[in-house]
Amino acid sequence: MKCVRCRKKGVIHLKRHNAAFCQECFLYYYKNQVKKNIKRHRMFDKEDKVLVVISGGKDSMALWHILASEGYNVTGMYINLGIGQYSDKSQQVVESFAQKNGLELIVKDIKKEYGLDIYKLSKLLKRSTCSVCGSIKRYLFNKVAYDGGFSAVATGHNLDDEAATLLGNVLSWEEGYLARQSPVLESTHPKLVKKVKPLYTLTERENLFYVLINKIEFLHDECPHAVGARSILYKEVLNRLEEESPGTKQRFITSFLEKGRRHFQDAQEKLELRECSICGQVTTTEVCSFCRFVKLSNQNTEN
Ligand code: FES
Ligand code: ZN
To answer: Domain Rhodanese, which positions (predicted)?
Structure first.
């Protein structure tokens, strides 16, 4: 196995590209993929302030590292969601990386700052912890980005995540979600910040290789609530397909973006957006779900 670029000994084989790379050329390939994705989808440029959402896992750590090394104006954002040890450990990893590399980091703690407890809320609302957690995260990403004058919110979604989401949405023909699945979600309201996924063509394995080569510390554990999630099953199924036919995931995503997605444009819900009467963030109801969560949590501690 020789590196396709320099003919030295290859250390990673990427079957879907029918290519092997040595360490140095892998980094070159990785960097190029990220740069191409940013450019092709006009995600942001060097003048833009970019908020990078960090969980402490390999994907977001890789994203933060590559964007900072390429000279983009990035600030990390970490949310402590109060998920026991998982949250404590990930916060430590993220803070120590920021400190060692002199990177800016914004930390939000939903319990300390807003009195929110995702477990209590999920019981009260009869919703899964992941869905409550997801609403809180989406709200805070946007709020912090908007308040801080950021041009984009970047997340570490990789090719495996995107293909699994697409498969899930196709299996139940979630037209609205299909219309919105994209490496770039443009803003549809002056108070909504654009969302981008610069790693959407890179696999979990490639991100792992990137953090290992660069000796970036990351949290190996997944969120404990991810266990048994549908997305994991979809990933397994896609891995099986990928084994038989390398390139399946990438073809699935790129051909969807090129040919499939446009058929769902009409399914984009034309929701009437308004500003929350309490916090002013964008919502479709009088009071946004985040403010409802805060109210509910406070009522419950008073009782
Ligand atoms: Fe939100 Fe796991 S990260 S429930
Ligand atoms: Zn609100």
So the answer is: 33-95
* Main-chain phi, psi angles of 201, to 5 degrees: -105, 5
Interface predicted TM-score (ipTM): 0.92
Decide whether any atom of ligand 1 lies within 6 Å of the 106 Cβ: no
Closest approach atom of ligand 1 to CA 223: 2
CA of 127 to the centre of ligand 1 (A): 13
Point out the ligand nearest to the CA of residue 80: 1
Q: Which residue's CA is minimally distant from atom 2 of ligand 1?
A: 223
Low-confidence ranges of the chain (pLDDT < 70): 228, 269, 300-303
Please state the domain extents for the chain.
31-271
- Probe ligand 1: pick from 81, 127, 232, 293, max atoms within 8 Å of CB? 81
CATH of domain 31-271: 3.40.50.620
Which is it for the CA torsion 39, 44, 50, 55, positive or negative? negative
165-202: per-residue pLDDT in tens?
999 999 999 999 999 999 999 999 999 999 999 999 99
pLDDT in tens, 259-302: 999 998 887 767 789 999 999 999 999 999 999 999 999 886 65
